Structure formats: structure tokens, C-alpha cells
Amino acid sequence: MLERARATEIVASREAMATTGPLAESDQPLISYEQVGKTFETLQGDVVAVHDITLDVREGEFVTLVGPSGCGKSTLLNMAAGLFEPTTGTVRYRGSTVAPYNQRVGYMTQNDHLLPWRDVMGNVIVPLEIRRVPKREARDRVDDLLAKVGLKGFEKAYPSQLSGGMRKRCALARLLAYDPEALLMDEPFGALDAQLRLKMQIEIRDLAISLGKTAIFVTHDLDEAVSLADRCVVFTHRPGTIARVVDVPLPRERDLMKLRHNSTYRDLTAELWDLLSPDMDRMES
Ligand SMILES: Nc1ncnc2c1ncn2[C@@H]1O[C@H](COP(=O)(O)OP(=O)(O)OP(=O)(O)O)[C@@H](O)[C@H]1O
Ligand SMILES: [Mg+2]
Q: Rounded distance, CA 203 to CA 189, Å?
């Protein structure tokens, strides 16, 4: 039981781990995929998840990834996080091949992996404990983060006592605990209702911009893909290749509440629908 608990803590901390190192100024992209392919060997035969992906993500950019289920979006995040190696090509972080367990990124999966036996403070502090940050400093940092994500006053609440949105905020605070340079987020708001989702979208974009984070955000929601992005990458059906990279020429400081009245936004979401609809009947469920 203890081992299982520890293993879950390690998974949670890997999702949240990142470097505290200084940001190096450079023209290099932060994350780059160079002709990347990934094939999984399974008992049923080889599965080619992605093929020939070339993509640069610049520092401070907010990039969204959309595409049919099974086209390899999570696989691409896993490779940037150093959880999988590509079969062909190279994934680089600041110009160097991504190391196993890339500690410079924070990774938020669809499942928040909160530890049910720890309260909010206890969950958010996990990555700081693993890095042996002195207790007082770690608690101060967590207090600050909880205020940022709107969870002040809920330090002692357990995950079972939190609403869906509060759990996401808690996972977001843990993701930010190490001040990662880049945020990898895999459908983090998939299970939320429309209003809460919008609120979380506003928060994540504001936080990413105000803290100077680079973000790669996977979603199935085309409105979300446009409203959050500086650029949106659209993938084909598996094996995933890049169908189009769509620039989102909306202001960086944008009012997500009012976007649906914006014609650029409406045109772009329509463009994404048109790009993706031919793949709909081929989707893996
Ligand atoms: N560890 C693995 N072992 C074997 N096959 C895998 C593994 N991970 C992913 N795959 C396969 O690779 C393909 C791409 O999977 P991936 O999870 O990256 O897709 P996705 O675009 O994130 O899909 P979704 O939108 O449904 O989350 C799928 O066919 C999947 O079955
Ligand atoms: Mg996925």
C-alpha cells in the first residue's frame, strides 16, 4: 500500500516537476519536433501514432493542438516531457535532445492525479518536498500559488471535498509549483461544464502570459483551440501529420468572454471545423 502511494506521488510529481533554473535568452525555439515519428509495438502489430512532425514552439507562445482522437496529440506531449523517445527524428528542448523525464516542463494530464489522502496544501507541495525545498519556504510558495489560482482558504480541504473546477485549480497550482518554463496540458478542462471551462480558460491564459510561460495545450474543443492560442496546430487522422498551422491574429490581451462576437474568431473556428470534419467519420472512439 505504501509503495503504491509512493508510486502515485512520483507520478503526480513528475506531472508537476520543472526546473527552477534561469530563462536563457535565445533565438532557438523552446521545444522543437524535427521530422518526428513514433511507432508503438503492440501484440496486435505496430501502431504508427505520428509521422513526420516538424514543429517549433517559441518561448512564451501559447500553442494549441487539435485533431481526431488517436492522431497522436498525447504522444507528442509525452515525447516533449521525455516519457517516450521518438522512433524517428528528434524532439529538442532549447536545442538539446529531450532527456528522459524532462524536468523543465510541467505536465498536466486529463486525469488530475490528486492524492486523495493529502489535503490541498499537501498536494500542491509534493514537487517542492521532492526537491527538498525548506518547509517554510515551500509553504509560503504554495500559499502564494493557491491565492493565484483562487483556492485561498481551501488549504485543508481534501480532493473529495472539492468541486471539479477546484480540483483543476489545485492541479494547476501543483503544476506551477516548480515554476516550469513550459506547460504541457492534455485536455485539462475536458470534464468541466461550459461556464467553468470558460473561467479556467481565462485563468490559464492570464497565468501563462503574466508568468511568461510557454504552453502546449491539447483540446478537442475548437472554440477553446482558437480562443487560447497564438497558433493552433491541426492534425490529420492517425498516423497524425500536421494538416495546417493556423495563426490566430487576435490580440494577446483578449477578452475571452466577448470572443464569440469577434469575426476573426468566428472565421477561424469555422476554418477548423472545415479542416477537421472530413476526418469525423474515421475517428477512433
Ligand atoms: N503506450 C502505448 N502503447 C501502444 N500504443 C499506444 C501507446 N500510446 C498511444 N498509443 C497509440 O498511439 C495512437 C495515438 O495515441 P494518442 O494517445 O497519442 O492519441 P491522441 O491524439 O492523444 O488521442 P485522444 O484525442 O483520444 O486523446 C493511438 O492509436 C494509441 O492507441
Ligand atoms: Mg490524448
A: 12
